[in-house]
């Protein structure tokens, strides 16, 4: 638990969001998996540059929520508008939104048959239609930013988990996304590797990226989040700025959850 | 000196990396580990050595040392031996070699077969070997090869036409095998994608096709090809028998390939397609660049297995009267001058098929090793 706060360093709260422009707007959204009602009446507005941490017990729908934002999951009711484009069945719109929204997965999902550099240039070359040399230049820039340029020619299987996750972040950043979604980015990592990934995420936060992070790293939440959202059983139970959220949780279920994850 | 079990004289944290004990490495270590690791293995090793020692020398004597390479008839051949029938009479095979290779292809046109074979080699190398310099430039040649070879073999457009019922021997095996292999792979991949697609109509069509083809023996399909297909085609269309066989063999193999590839598709984690989606790749790009390369890599053993099966199944065309090597062999054995040399004929054909299939098998191993990018490659 203490790792993240060490990572982020002593910092009192995050800087306030400097714009009021809404970049993601979710209204009355519902989702079912078969008969199972996994998301119930979700309403959420995200401002440009805002950093949101979503937490909650497993099975509460937090991953599904952010997967709806780039349509890896389809919602059945309500609306999701990303950058002024509503997510519907329109494939072209979905592809546009996906190329503007980066996603980092719990299990990295790097492409094992491609080198680190090829992982990063793939979408630039095939989606952005960029010449290979230019794409490689951009990719190397981001690999330097996540501090692994020397691994560019290796295959993902030859890297440690922490290195793989940093490559995954660089791969998303190459597309120059406006929004970054993180789906439990450190849950599959050994403790000593969590820090290197969180460091990269903190730097990204400082650059003003809009971020939605599903995580249990409460130190990270305290240090960089503008807002912490607590979900349980498919509903948003409570949301607040981090210090209020952790120090004065209002809802019983939030208190229970916090007592459970903070008791060790 | 520190004996085994004695406390090491190293302070904690200063223990150097030592070489492994001698008896676990090198030839001695290998033999201990692989041949004599337990009493049972010792017995097995000795049995194996005894078996090889008692089988190989007589085989070599029969096939090579005492064999006869020139003779005009079986009687002459056996007459040359100390004891008749004690060794192989390769003179028979030698005398009929061109029949085994070309079937009844007209002698004066056989250069066309030779040329097609050379062109085939030039078409296969860029497909199989990706480090060939300028590999991309060969693409159009490879794409044009089937038409080029078809024109050379069948004739027309300036070449003397040759009826396909004169095709035979190894040439026929290669034509059916290579056509079946090269067309069944793309069709099989398409069927596998169709079967895993989310579009119900497409999926059902693919399932029906695959299950129908897989549920019927190849021989039955070949009979359909040779006898019944005319009923289904518009009257007046004449359709070459070889062409029908090629289509049937290709469809048959593609149904199997489809199932093998489907297995491979299931072996690619769902997260791979999701990651490709999340980067904005379209379905087709995600399949082509991310999912299929990994699925095909997993499927290599199954795909090559299917190809080897298909290659050997080409001998079934014998049943509908085509003269593949086995057909030529049977016809040759019917010759009264040479009758009685079945061992030589079938061994010769077996060696031909073994060499081809073993080559495919080795290539698949090479490919698996080359495509292995995981941690395993560091072992």
Describe, in plain words, how this protein is organized in 3D:
The complex is a heterodimer of chains A (264) and B (379). Chain A is built from ten helices and ten strands. With 264 residues, chain A is an alpha/beta fold. In chain A, helix 4 (116-126) packs across helix 5 (132-145) and helix 4 runs parallel beside helix 6. The N and C termini of chain A lie close together (8 Å). With 379 residues, chain B is an all-alpha fold. Chain B folds into two domains: 23-65, no CATH class; 93-371, MetI-like (MetI-like fold). Chain B has helices at residues 26-34, 39-65, 74-79, 90-95, 97-102, 110-128, 139-154, 169-195, 200-214, 218-232, 241-267, 270-278, 283-313, 325-333, 342-371. The two termini of chain B are 33 Å apart. The model of chain B has no long low-confidence stretch (mean pLDDT 88). Chains A and B meet through helix 3, strand 6, helix 4 and helix 6 of A and helix 12 and helix 13 of B.
Topology:
The complex is a heterodimer of chains A (264) and B (379).
Chain A: H1 2-8, E1 22-33, E2 36-47, E3 51-55, H2 62-69, E4 77-82, E5 85-86, H3 91-100, E6 101-104, H4 116-126, H5 132-145, H6 161-174, E7 179-183, H7 191-206, E8 210-214, H8 218-224, E9 227-232, E10 235-240, H9 242-247, H10 252-262
Parallel strand pairs in A: 3-8, 3-9, 6-7, 7-8
Antiparallel strand pairs in A: 1-2, 1-4, 4-5, 9-10
Helix pairs in contact in A: 1-7, 1-8, 4-5, 4-6, 5-6, 6-7
Chain B: H1 26-34, H2 39-65, H3 74-79, H4 90-95, H5 97-102, H6 110-128, H7 139-154, H8 169-195, H9 200-214, H10 218-232, H11 241-267, H12 270-278, H13 283-313, H14 325-333, H15 342-371
Helix pairs in contact in B: 6-7, 8-9, 8-11, 8-13, 8-14, 9-11, 10-11, 11-13, 12-13, 13-15, 14-15
């Amino acid at each position: 638990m203490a790792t993240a706060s060490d990572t982020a360093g002593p910092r009192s709260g995050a800087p306030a969001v400097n714009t009021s422009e809404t970049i993601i707007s979710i209204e009355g959204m519902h989702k079912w998996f078969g008969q199972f009602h996994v998301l119930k009446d979700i309403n959420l507005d995200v401002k440009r540059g805002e950093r949101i941490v979503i937490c909650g017990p497993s099975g509460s729908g937090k991953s599904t929520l952010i997967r709806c934002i780039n349509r890896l999951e389809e919602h059945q009711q309500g609306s999701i508008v990303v950058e002024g484009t509503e997510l519907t069945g329109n494939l072209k719109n979905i592809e546009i939104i996906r190329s503007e929204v980066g996603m980092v997965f719990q299990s990295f999902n790097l492409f094992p048959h491609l080198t680190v550099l090829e992982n990063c240039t793939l979408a630039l070359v095939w989606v952005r239609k960029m010449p290979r040399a230019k794409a490689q230049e951009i990719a190397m820039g981001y690999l330097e930013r996540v501090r692994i340029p020397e691994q560019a020619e290796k295959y993902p299987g030859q890297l440690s988990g922490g290195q793989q996750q940093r490559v995954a972040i660089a791969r998303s950043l190459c597309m120059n996304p406006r929004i970054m979604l993180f789906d439990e980015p450190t849950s599959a990592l050994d403790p000593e590797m969590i820090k290197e990934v969180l460091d990269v995420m903190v730097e990204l936060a400082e650059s003003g990226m809009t971020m939605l992070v599903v995580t249990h790293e409460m130190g990270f939440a305290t240090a960089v989040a503008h807002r912490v959202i607590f979900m349980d059983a498919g509903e948003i139970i409570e949301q607040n700025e981090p210090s209020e959220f952790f120090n004065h949780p209002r809802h019983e279920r939030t208190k229970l959850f916090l007592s459970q994850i903070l008791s060790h | 000196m520190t004996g085994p079990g004695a406390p090491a004289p190293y302070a904690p944290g200063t223990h150097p990396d030592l070489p492994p004990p001698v008896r676990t490495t090198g030839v001695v270590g290998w033999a201990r580990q692989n041949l004599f690791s337990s009493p049972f293995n010792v017995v097995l090793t000795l049995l194996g050595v005894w078996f090889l020692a008692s089988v190989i020398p007589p085989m070599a004597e029969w096939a090579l040392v005492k064999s006869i390479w020139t003779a005009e008839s079986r009687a002459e051949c056996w007459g040359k031996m100390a004891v008749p029938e004690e060794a192989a009479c390769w003179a028979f095979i030698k005398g009929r070699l061109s029949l085994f290779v070309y079937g009844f292809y007209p002698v004066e046109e056989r250069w066309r077969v030779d040329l097609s074979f050379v062109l085939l080699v030039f078409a296969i190398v860029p497909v199989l070997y990706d480090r060939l310099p300028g590999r991309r430039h060969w693409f159009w040649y490879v794409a044009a090869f089937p038409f080029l070879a078809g024109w050379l073999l069948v004739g027309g457009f300036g070449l003397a036409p040759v009826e396909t019922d004169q095709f035979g021997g190894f040439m026929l095996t290669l034509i059916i095998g290579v056509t079946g292999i090269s067309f069944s792979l793309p069709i099989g991949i398409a069927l596998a994608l169709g079967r895993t697609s989310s579009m119900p109509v497409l999926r059902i069509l693919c399932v029906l096709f695959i299950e129908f083809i897989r549920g019927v023996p190849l021989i039955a399909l070949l009979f359909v090809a040779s006898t019944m297909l005319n009923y289904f085609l518009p009257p007046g269309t004449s359709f070459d028998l070889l062409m029908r066989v090629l289509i049937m063999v290709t469809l048959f193999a593609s149904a199997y390939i489809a199932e093998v590839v489907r297995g491979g598709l299931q072996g690619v984690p769902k997260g791979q397609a999701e990651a490709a989606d999340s980067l904005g790749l379209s379905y087709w790009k995600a399949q082509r660049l991310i999912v299929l390369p990994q699925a095909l890599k997993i499927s290599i053993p199954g795909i090559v297995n299917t190809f080897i099966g298909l290659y050997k199944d080409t001998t079934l065309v014998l049943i509908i009267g085509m003269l593949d090597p086995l057909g030529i062999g049977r016809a040759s054995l019917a010759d009264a001058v040479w009758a009685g040399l079945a061992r030589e004929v079938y061994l010769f054909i077996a060696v031909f098929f073994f060499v081809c299939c073993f080559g495919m098998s080795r290539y698949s191993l090479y490919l698996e090793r080359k495509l292995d990018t995981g941690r395993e490659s560091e072992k």
